[in-house]
Write a structure and sequence with these properties.
single chain, alpha/beta, Cobalt-precorrin-4 Transmethylase, domain 1, Methyltransferase, Cobalt-precorrin-4 Transmethylase, Domain 2, five-stranded mixed sheet
Length: 270
């Protein structure tokens, strides 16, 4: 870690000390004085790539460890720097920010490897959620590992897991397929191949294609239960569980649809 990163870490560590209070057992029992928990700086290793999960909507979901890591590394790479600048402003992060997306992967991977070779600690974040999951981070992780550098996860929010946990659909096994194919023919071939799995299917979908996707799902599996989660952790969060034909009809009847979707399809009941 460079001197600048160390200074940022020391300065920002003092801003996040939480306060806790212990109440007495009885209504009239005196309350203990607030206790300031000691802050232990997250140790940052040099020449290490950190994959830091960030909120999928509610900025309050950024973990203390994630914040400390982003404050302490030498540089952050983000899929969309405009989104990450808002996160940096909210948590008073001054770490330098660089772009890393699908359009810049080829030229940015050598740049990041050079930083690691120089001993820098580098953080990768996505627009929302966990980097490397349905985003351009995977080639970078592979390149860093192949070059012998440590890659460290800093876990946190995931839209797929959050949606599954509140869907009421079976969770004994699940298949996450990222974004559904754009074309109907490719979608049908993929879904047909996955249809025999004894697992809940989980996909991401755009608001512009979600109606067509659900209509196709309803035709393919008219007796299956499904669910969708929209705008997770945001003001207009919506989670709906129903048979697939009902979900398709619900969405088709809406005058407009906004927000990214998580689509979930239950396996055939035994």
């Amino acid at each position: 870690m460079t001197a600048g990163a160390a200074d940022r870490q020391a300065a920002q560590a003092g801003e996040c000390a939480p306060e806790t209070g212990l109440a007495g057992a009885g209504a009239d029992a005196p309350r203990a004085a607030p206790v300031t928990a000691p802050v232990t700086a997250t140790p940052i290793a040099p020449a290490t790539l950190y994959l830091v999960a960030t909120p999928i909507g509610n900025l309050g979901d950024l973990s203390p460890r994630a914040r400390d890591t982003l404050a302490a590394v030498d540089v952050m790479y983000a899929e969309d720097t405009r989104v990450t600048r808002k996160l940096s402003a909210r948590f008073q992060l001054t770490t330098p920010l660089r772009r890393f997306d699908a359009a810049t992967t080829a030229r940015k991977i050598p740049e990041i490897l050079a930083r690691l070779d120089a001993g820098e600690a580098v953080a990768l974040v996505s627009d929302a959620g966990t980097p490397g999951i349905s985003d351009p981070g995977t080639p970078l992780v592979a390149a860093a590992r192949d070059a012998g550098y440590d890659v460290v996860p800093v876990p946190g929010p995931s839209a797929a897991v959050a949606a599954l946990s509140v869907s009421g659909l079976p969770t004994h096994a699940y298949y996450f397929g990222g974004f559904l194919p754009r074309k109907a023919g490719k979608r049908e071939r993929l879904l047909t191949a996955l249809g025999e799995l004894d697992a809940t299917l989980v996909f991401y979908e755009s608001p512009y294609r979600v109606v067509a996707s659900f209509q196709q799902l309803a035709q393919l599996w008219p007796t299956r239960m499904g669910a969708f989660a929209r705008e997770l952790t945001k003001l207009h969060e919506e989670i709906v569980r129903a048979p697939l034909p009902e979900l398709a009809a619900d969405l088709a009847a809406r005058p407009s649809i906004r927000g990214e979707f998580v689509i979930l399809i239950a396996p055939e009941p035994h």
